[in-house]
């Protein structure tokens, strides 16, 4: 197997599935090169429905070069309302053209402002706000620019490897070659953006939190300079690191140096300055500083830690040659989501089953028909690890990281009960002559995890 980029290896993505040479090139040369359309799973009532029973105005918005959070901030500011009245099912990247649903509580169509580079279509009303569970998946149209001259031939070779991976070598029939229309498959890794493409530290912060080392968590986020950052940011972070090694920490000096755009880091430093915290302050002081960031970022820290551990489990499974599209003795499988759109191979991790030796062949048949999927843990307090060799991998990865499920019993937004996630993601794929890749993925899956196999470039090119 071909080794992954060093930045990817730092978040647990160790290999490429396909050994074929990549096509190179870049994504997102312009927002129009990266189009994302939500596959909606949300019931909407007619616009004339009574507002008492259906207080949420539902809109379909198409955004160009807008991060969802930034757009919602702009929309709520223009409407003069709290951001808490605006909800959505999935956060979309900025450098793209994206189409998604939003809901606005206690609003009428005439209340909606015009927002640059945004088309807002009112489609009806709902009795509740949108939530993450209302997103079935996303359909993508992504164009690759500046690829290698023989990119078409390379695409064909890589796609053949990924079709074989989707089936599994143990199920491949040498006398019946795979159909070019068969789905492709890749390990269901969490993509680089989960951890920070330019400064991948969120998982490190989260692991420090899970280990109970709140002081190190603050240092990793507010200090810990990265070579990809601007000079003034690196210098400010280096000054923060110096305070952690000092007998007389000067957090006010750090505040003066920290760029204003880094408002979360500044929030942490402000709390440390207010507390006049020495470098050896009690853990409660560091925890209070970390809680200066918004609640969604607090959750993200631990979620990123879970994601990095998940990635490492998948990489170890790949290294050992265990199948992804079929179970082995000890695996935990889930069944498919029968309500998912037809274009999705979507797992339902609320329906789990342990795979004993006597049931391997039965569950394998379900996997071949896309009725079941093998899973790995997003570790939390209620996680039950697998048995057999899969369980051995899970326990070894956790031991190496110095954590165990009980450690996720954390205060406030940091705690997590955990869940399981399918280890293989499959999709039908078409690639046009201009190297536009069209495919659909279940919610929570990353387009870049598929495209990295084709480009084999660094994460910043994705």
Task: Please give a structural write-up.
With 462 residues, this protein is an alpha+beta fold. Helix content is 33%, strand content 20%. It is built from 13 helices and 16 strands. The protein has helices at 6-9, 68-79, 151-167, 202-210, 214-222, 231-244, 251-257, 263-275, 283-290, 295-320, 360-368, 388-401, 447-455, and strands spanning 24-26, 34-40, 56-64, 86-88, 97-105, 118-126, 135-143, 145-147, 184-187, 332-336, 347-354, 372-378, 419-422, 424-427, 430-431, 436-442. Strands 2, 3, 4, 5, 6, 7, 15 and 16 form an eight-stranded mixed sheet that branches. A four-stranded antiparallel sheet has the order 11-10-12-13. A two-stranded antiparallel ribbon has the order 1-8. α7 (251-257) runs antiparallel to α8, α8 runs antiparallel to α9 and α10 (295-320) packs across α12. It is globular. The two termini are 21 Å apart.
């Amino acid at each position: 197997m071909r080794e992954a980029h060093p930045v990817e290896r730092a978040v647990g993505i160790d290999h490429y599935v396909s050994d074929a040479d990549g096509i190179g090139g870049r994504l997102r040369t312009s927002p129009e090169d990266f189009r994302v359309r939500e596959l909606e799973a949300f019931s909407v009532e007619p616009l004339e429905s009574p507002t008492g029973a259906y207080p949420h105005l539902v809109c379909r918005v198409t955004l160009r070069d807008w991060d969802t959070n930034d757009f919602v901030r702009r929309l709520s500011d223009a409407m003069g309302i709290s951001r808490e009245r605006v909800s959505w099912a999935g956060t979309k990247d900025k450098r793209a053209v994206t189409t998604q649903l939003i809901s606005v509580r206690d609003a009428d169509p005439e209340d909606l402002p015009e927002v640059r580079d945004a088309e807002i279509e009112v489609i009806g009303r709902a009795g509740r706000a949108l939530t993450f569970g209302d997103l079935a998946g996303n359909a993508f149209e992504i164009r690759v620019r500046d690829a290698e001259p023989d990119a078409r031939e390379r695409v064909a070779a890589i796609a053949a490897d990924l079709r074989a991976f989707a089936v599994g070598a143990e199920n491949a029939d040498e006398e019946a070659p795979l159909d070019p229309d068969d789905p492709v498959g890749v390990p269901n890794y969490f993509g680089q953006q989960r951890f920070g493409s330019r400064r991948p530290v969120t998982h490190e912060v989260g692991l420090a939190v899970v280990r109970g080392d709140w002081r190190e968590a603050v240092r990793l986020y507010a200090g810990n300079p990265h070579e990809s950052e601007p000079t003034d940011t690196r210098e400010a972070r280096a000054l923060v690191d110096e305070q952690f090694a000092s007998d007389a920490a000067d957090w006010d000096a750090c505040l003066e140096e920290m760029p204003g755009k880094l408002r979360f880091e500044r929030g942490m430093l402000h709390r440390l300055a207010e507390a006049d915290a020495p470098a050896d302050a009690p853990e409660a002081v560091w925890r209070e500083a970390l809680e200066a960031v918004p609640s969604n970022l607090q959750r993200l820290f631990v979620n990123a830690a879970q994601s990095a551990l998940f990635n490492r489990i998948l990489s170890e499974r790949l290294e050992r040659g265990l199948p992804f599209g079929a179970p082995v003795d000890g695996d935990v499988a889930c069944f498919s989501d029968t309500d998912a759109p037809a274009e999705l191979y979507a797992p339902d991790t609320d329906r789990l089953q342990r795979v004993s030796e006597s049931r391997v062949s039965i569950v394998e048949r379900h996997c071949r028909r896309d009725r079941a999927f093998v899973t790995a843990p997003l570790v939390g307090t209620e996680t039950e690890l697998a048995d057999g060799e899969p369980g051995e991998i899970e326990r070894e990865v956790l031991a190496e990281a110095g954590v165990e499920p009980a450690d996720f019993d954390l205060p406030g937004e940091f705690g997590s009960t955990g869940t399981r996630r399918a280890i293989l993601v499959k999709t039908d794929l078409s690639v046009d002559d201009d190297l536009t890749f069209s495919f659909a993925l279940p919610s929570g899956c990353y387009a870049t995890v598929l495209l990295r196999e084709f480009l084999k470039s660094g994460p910043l090119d994705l």
